[in-house]
Amino acid sequence: MASIVAASSAFSTILTAQFLIPSSSSSFFLKTLTRRSTAPLLRLSLTSRRPLRNVMAYATLGLTRPSNTETPKISFASKEVDVVQWKGDLLAIGVTEKDLARNAEARFENAILNSVDSKLDGLLAEASTEEDFTGKPGQSIVLRIAGGLGSKRVALLGLGASASTFAAFKSLGEAVASAAKSAQAGHVAVSLASPDAFSVESKLKTASAIASGTVLGTFEDNRYKSESKKSSLKSVDIIGLGSGPELEKKLKFAADVSSGIIFGRELVNSPANVLTPGVLAEEASNIAAAYSDVFTAKILDAEQCKELKMGSYLGVAAASANPPHFIHLCYKPPSGPVNVKLALVGKGLTFDSGGYNIKTGPGCMIELMKFDMGGSAAVFGAAKALGQIKPLGVEVHFIVAACENMISGTGMRPGDILTASNGKTIEVNNTDAEGRLTLADALVYACNQGAEKIVDLATLTGACIIGLGSSIGGVFTPSDDLAKEVFEASEASGEKLWRLPLEESYWESMKSGVADMVNTGARPGSAITAALFLKQFVDEKVQWLHIDMAGPVWNEKQRCATGFGVATLVEWVLKNAS
Q1: 436 included as an active-site residue
Q2: Which of 221-230, 398-407, 444-453 is the least confident region?
Q3: Segment 345-358 mean pLDDT
Q4: Of 53, 153, 250, 436, which residue is the catalytic one?
Q5: Set 223, 347, 359, 384: catalytic member
Q6: Which terminus of the chain, N or C, has fewer Cβ atoms within 10 Å?
Q7: Which CATH number fits domain 253-577: 1.10.12.10, 3.30.70.20, 3.40.630.10, 3.30.2010.10?
């Protein structure tokens, strides 16, 4: 990733869906780890009884391997029951600021809150006043109660002035997970204070978002810790948001997407001494093997990439002792015709030292450069989810040019000229702008697969972090139609994107005196020139969109990966499916 340094009980209908963290829907298991003779990598043999995520292949540096952690299970059930009669450990109620309105007697006007408060002799109203709980987003209040309700605890969780988006209710689910963890609650119920304000379809989407947020909020990646606590949460009842097959379908969809997001998080969280390019290729191959009814895998080694004239990609990979692996998964629907061909291209730098332009000084983030494969994690997380969802009418290519950007006598130097697989030449004026060099050949390859639409994701520039911060991905595309599709997908997923201009006049700074282009231009607008560089390797007949996810790939507060991009990619593919 190019860096910016210093600049920078009533009637009850129950539908239960099992959520695994990640999803256990895969029947593919792995058995033994055996040493591969040609590289410091361990190969996975097939057919066994241990889940995929617990036996990630690993390299030997530091003698580190992910522990065999147990996978928590959370069952979700839909219920139509009076909240005061529900029995369990924690009753969580999502409230807006309007829901907290009081009458002349200082009692809640909201029917559900008033009912709960009456059973508690006014304790809920009293506590919310004393704690200055106003229903703002992120606010919460949890009471341990001696009696009056079937629940041992009741929580009010703030939704803000109003709540209608997937992101808002996903956040509610995360708040439920946090409250359950603090209370060590095993059995939880979630209700909205005003469920009748929602349409039937909105209720289904809301339930799905709450379930997704609860699963993701419960997940903790403890594979590299010597000790870890098990999650107490076993079941969640969603009250008042519908029932029946449609809700069950929504809950399964949430489970499938959540499993992909968690898989993406685990890939990014894994350190570079564990997740080498070869191991990333193994993990991708495992997805294809797990869902072999819809997936095939092709892994190209350096010699095969040389035959395809991928000089730009191989130039980046040349310095590392860990060989490059060019990864291509192909999804085809289980039945019916293919109406559209898509490609998802992810940047796959499992570590980025910067090369000879080594990352140094405050703000260079070299210690976090394991996340420079966040684009590939999003792509493979989406592949895992889609392998379970199995959409019809769409063929999807998942493409990652995996390698490391290191320093050695065999590595590329500043001033070297690389030749990409489309014949264009690139003068390397900064070895730390390596991601675009790998993506160049990956994009050419994607076009050669017959893709009609391509979305690439990359932790590409520090400039995008400076411009958009840590929660918004930058979007660049010459296609308004494709932009519309992807932004609709991001709205459905709750992930934030912002479109930035592809200002063609900025290309002037990317011109070379001895090659077709340089790989970095002027510092101002450098996220734009990076996107313009990628555009040189996409066929003009192909719709293409680039997402710079350098900011939202990582949660600095929690010091772990976010899984950003997975949900949006899944939604986009489904929008293109029949």
Answers
A1: yes
A2: 221-230
A3: 98
A4: 436
A5: 359
A6: C
A7: 3.40.630.10
